[in-house]
């Protein structure tokens, strides 16, 4: 796309304060983000351009001035930085809904028979569904936070119906996977490392792992469980990465795992695009930070075993933060 950004500026005299407020609200509603020096930014897609054209006409008809420019270069602002502005804005929108959903889900988990809490949760859920739809319509560069919120709202709906996520029937039982050796390819990266963390922390604390060299046969038998490789027991399914498949099959849906899903998916898909010679399109800041730390761990680890130990600590720390965010 040659004109991938739209820059919008408005100028209104002080006496037209009400029109200024209306215009700024309209800009926020269509997903525009402040750039700098009273400039507002949107991606250069037809829907956004149409909204801004109408807004420009309203401003000028009301006695103000509006300027709409399309460009492929934002000067001192990189494309990645621009995309991050949108992600930060939308993630803040999602966070508002997520906080209330988490509060209500926790309340229903403790007091499932509280009729007043169930009424409040139902009323909130109706509003949250509409809010989620409206945010997604302007989530031009998704970070994964919206997908995590979708799962949280589904869990809340299950709580309201008296069948919380803990009571859902997963396709696999953790009791059937105790004492196994989990088998995957050597030189693990984000998906395999996080998947084994999920196994150790949510499925079998005593699980061991075996990393296969290239060309080495996959061991068979009830004492093994293979993952993230061709014809494995657990591997990519449709658009789901291995971490998501394990979480789904074992019914693991706690807050920390949902947050990690978005990060693992973003890094794994970006890495796959780069391997194919494409571009990752810019990772969300949270995913970029995790990737940078993980890449550093790979550089300072002398073996896959050492990397696994360090990666376990990394995911433990992230999970602890997501479960009880720092003040």
- Helix/strand-derived category reads alpha/beta
Biggest β-sheet description: 4 strands, antiparallel
Beta-strand portion reads: 5-15%
Order of helices and strands: EHEEHEHHHEHEEHHHH
What's the mean pLDDT score? 87
Instruction: Give the distance, in angstroms, between the N- and C-terminal Cα atoms.
Output: 42 Å
Tell how many strands the DSSP assignment holds: 7
Number of domains: 3
Main sheet: which strands, in order across? Answer: 2-3-1-4
Shape: globular
**Please, what is the oligomeric state?**
single chain
Note poorly predicted spans. none
Determine the number of helices (DSSP H or I, runs of at least 4 residues): 10
Radius of gyration over alpha carbons?
24 Å
Share of helix, binned:
40-55%
Give a short synopsis of this structure.
With 327 residues, the protein is an alpha/beta fold.
List keywords for this structure.
327 residues; alpha/beta; Alpha-Beta Plaits; 3 domains; four-stranded antiparallel sheet; three-stranded parallel sheet; globular
Tell me about this structure.
The protein is of the alpha/beta class. It folds into three domains: 5-71, Alpha-Beta Plaits; 79-166, no CATH class; 174-323, no CATH class. It has helices spanning 17-29, 46-61, 79-110, 115-137, 145-160, 190-203, 242-249, 255-275, 285-300, 304-323; strands at residues 5-11, 33-34, 39-43, 65-71, 181-185, 208-212, 224-226. The strands form two sheets. A four-stranded antiparallel sheet has the order 2-3-1-4, with helices on both faces. A three-stranded parallel sheet has the order 6-5-7, covered by helices on one side. Helix 8 crosses helix 10 (304-323) and helix 9 (285-300) packs antiparallel against helix 10. The longest helix has 32 residues, at 79-110. The radius of gyration is 24 Å and the shape is globular.
